[in-house]
Design brief:
Largest sheet: 3 strands, antiparallel
Helix content: 10-25%
Strand content: 15-25%
Strand order of the largest sheet: 1-2-3
Number of helices: 1
Structural class: alpha+beta
Length: 270
């Protein structure tokens, strides 16, 4: 009985000894397996996340990176953005009528215009739309030569008075006041800045040419030609004996041959 019990005890000890060891080993193995499996599961998750991240990264690189774009859809961003050929995106070409263009921060802009043209409306899409040889935009956007009837016209991009009425001219070169200067004055006689001054005589430019002023005019058609100058306004003791107004009253009337008057030698006293 006791042997049986001992056997049982031994069997129990062996079983329990083997059982716990086996169980422990199994548990340990299971734990190791479980741990490994757990790590594997975590690693699997991380791997998936990593794969997703990589895929997203690759997609981003395919679209654009650091100002580059994949314009031929080959997965390689080979086209530099920010240029006139690809300003903000593939195919965004900067071009405007009569203009030199540039790309500024992804936006097309006009850099300069062809000679004789301007971007007066500040609209890139209309280009350099304004002709600077026109009456209302002469040389610049805001220069208006006014009504051509006043005599001012746009000539090669400059407002100029091209035609004035007789006896007037644009002497100050300011088209805004037209033909402002009469050409019948002693300062502007016949031409801008042409003075009228004669020696020993009072000068006059009433007719637009420099003449000796008339002191006495014929008012009696029976006695003389109406309007004829009977006496010129010379300085005392001088006369216009050659009838040439350009040299004024050139003759000294106290000289031989012109004593007291032109061609009057008899009045002379030695």
């Amino acid at each position: 009985m006791s042997g049986v019990i001992l056997y049982a005890a031994c069997s129990s000890d062996d079983s329990s000894g083997s059982g716990p060891d086996a169980g422990g080993d199994a548990s340990a193995d299971a734990g190791v397996e479980g741990g490994t499996g757990g790590s594997g599961a975590t690693g699997g998750s991380a791997g998936s996340a990593g794969s997703a991240g990589s895929a997203g990264s690759a997609g981003s690189a395919g679209g654009s990176s650091s100002g580059m774009a994949d314009c031929d859809d080959d997965g390689v961003p080979e086209t530099q953005l920010g240029t006139v050929e690809a300003c903000s995106a593939c195919g965004d070409v900067c071009v405007a009528s009569r203009a030199e263009v540039r790309c500024v921060s992804g936006t097309c802009a006009i850099d300069d215009c062809a000679d004789g043209w301007a971007d007066c409306d500040k609209d890139y899409f209309t280009g350099c739309e304004t002709d600077l040889t026109q009456q209302q935009s002469c040389g610049a956007c805001d220069v208006d030569c006014g009504d051509p009837a006043t005599g001012a016209e746009c000539v090669q991009g400059i407002c100029q008075v091209t035609q004035c009425p007789d006896g007037f001219d644009d002497c100050n070169n300011d088209f805004t006041d037209g033909c402002e200067t009469p050409l019948t004055t002693l300062a502007n006689c016949g031409f801008c800045g042409e003075p009228c001054s004669l020696p020993n005589a009072t000068a006059s430019c009433e007719t637009g040419s420099c003449q000796i002023a008339c002191k006495t005019v014929c008012t009696d058609p029976d006695a003389c030609t109406l309007g004829e100058c009977l006496e010129k306004e010379c300085a005392e003791g001088w006369g216009d004996c050659n009838n040439d107004p350009s040299d004024g009253c050139e003759m000294d009337l106290n000289s031989l041959g012109h004593c007291g008057g032109c061609n009057q030698p008899s009045n002379c006293r030695p």
